[in-house]
Amino acid sequence: MKKVLVTGGAGYVGSHTVKELVKNGYDVLVVDNLETGHRKLVDHRAKLEVADLADKEKLKSIFEKYIPEAVIDFAAYLAVGESMEEPEKYFQNNVANFINLLDAMNEVGCKLLIKSSSAAVYGNPTKESDIPWQEDFTECYRPEKSALLSGNWQGKKIAGEEFFQCFLDHYNSIYADRPELKLSSDEIIKLRIPMSIYGVTKLLDEIVMKKYDEFCGLKSIVLRYFNVCGADPSGGIGEAKPKPTTLMTLAIWQILGRVPELSIFGDDYSTSDGSGVRDYIHPSDLATGHIKALKFLVKNNKSDIFNLGTGTSSSVFEVISAVEKASGGKVKYTIKPRRSGDPAISISDPRKAEKVLNWKAKYNLRDMAETAWKWEINNSKIKIQKSK
Ligand SMILES: NC(=O)c1ccc[n+]([C@@H]2O[C@H](COP(=O)([O-])OP(=O)(O)OC[C@H]3O[C@@H](n4cnc5c(N)ncnc54)[C@H](O)[C@@H]3O)[C@@H](O)[C@H]2O)c1
């Protein structure tokens, strides 16, 4: 197994995985439209094809020319808040374009896929024992109503079941002539678990992958990442989104004066210091996780789902303190009310990936802060050019 096509490989997590792939001797073709990615982030040993997954003809010709043995898919939109305001845009990129990718793979007989998913598929814990999240939560929990918070559907603010139905009707109308993509009643109930359209698109992708396994034998591994932060220790690649949404990057941007102040949503949770608690994971650990998943898939030819997290937790104040230590600066913040839909705690149970893939995260919060700071300082010097 040598030839791997990586979608979204010019982005944050993708560029770290591309670096690890070429280091391990893989022949890598990155397919990226450079909307949030950058040419500069792609390792010089990999090839880059600038293309959009919406362009079915171009995608087909890329696959026919390159004929990859496996695909790793990172291309998606991932801003939770934006997904509630522009759900059709998220449907198009995260679901419809993903189905284009699966069709292009199937047409050339490429039947191995590794796919980025997210802790957003888990929604809100229903009871204390749901945390740490285990992969089979989405196989067991069947809510009566959708957990979707309020959002915008064609100019109308709606929430919950009504919002969910609009999204579902959209999927059903687009794929009305594809019976193999029809959702079962159990799959529809399962899709009610996430609280955001972003989470729904990720869970829907997982369901669609299962369908491709059933109707054309396309085997896939889903990797559900927790909160990604940090950068490659070299300082050469890192998060370079035009509008970062992650806490650590925003804290660093505040110190660098790129944002006036940091908002902390809630300091009255029942956690050790009152702020929200999350499982933070370094992109280089995710990169090794992808290599292990790829090797597992090639060897076993069997679809599966894994959490990629550390299984440990850090509070918002601990992240801020780690950034202050790494930078020597002081983060200016204000406390705001809790955001609806933010659980107090979200932590992964990574034992399945440890046991089955022999993968374990090695970077801690201090490493994440130090590498992220190093990247931001280098990045401000590099001044990445948009290549489009
Ligand atoms: N960053 C996180 O905290 C996080 C957490 C959980 C899951 N994920 C998942 O990881 C994946 C990568 O996230 P990231 O943080 O690296 O984001 P990113 O925006 O840095 O990378 C996404 C890349 O995909 C490209 N892309 C997007 N749509 C495309 C299209 N239609 N055609 C071609 N290229 C396209 C972008 O240009 C970009 O290079 C996403 O699927 C995301 O849902 C990320």
Determine the N-to-C terminus distance. 32 Å
Bound molecules: nicotinamide-adenine-dinucleotide
Order of helices and strands: EHEEHEHHEHEEHHHEEHEEEHEEHEEHH
Strand order of the largest sheet: 3-2-1-4-5-8-13
Supply the helix-strand structural class: alpha/beta
- Counted by DSSP, the helix tally is 13
Question: Biggest sheet: strands, sense, closure?
Answer: 7 strands, parallel
How much strand content do the residues show? 15-25%
* Number of strand elements: 16
As a percent range, the share of helical residues equals 40-55%
Which parts are unreliable, with pLDDT below 50 for 5 consecutive residues or more?
Answer: none
The value of Rg in angstroms is: 20 Å
Mean pLDDT: 95
Shape: globular
Blueprint (SSEs and pairs):
Layout: E1 3-7, H1 12-23, E2 27-32, E3 47-50, H2 56-66, E4 70-73, H3 80-85, H4 87-108, E5 112-118, H5 137-140, E6 151-153, E7 156-158, H6 160-174, H7 185-190, H8 197-216, E8 219-225, E9 227-228, H9 247-255, E10 262-265, E11 277-278, E12 280-281, H10 283-300, E13 304-308, E14 314-315, H11 316-327, E15 333-336, E16 345-346, H12 351-357, H13 365-382
Bound molecules: nicotinamide-adenine-dinucleotide.
Put the structure in a nutshell:
It contains 13 helices and 16 strands.
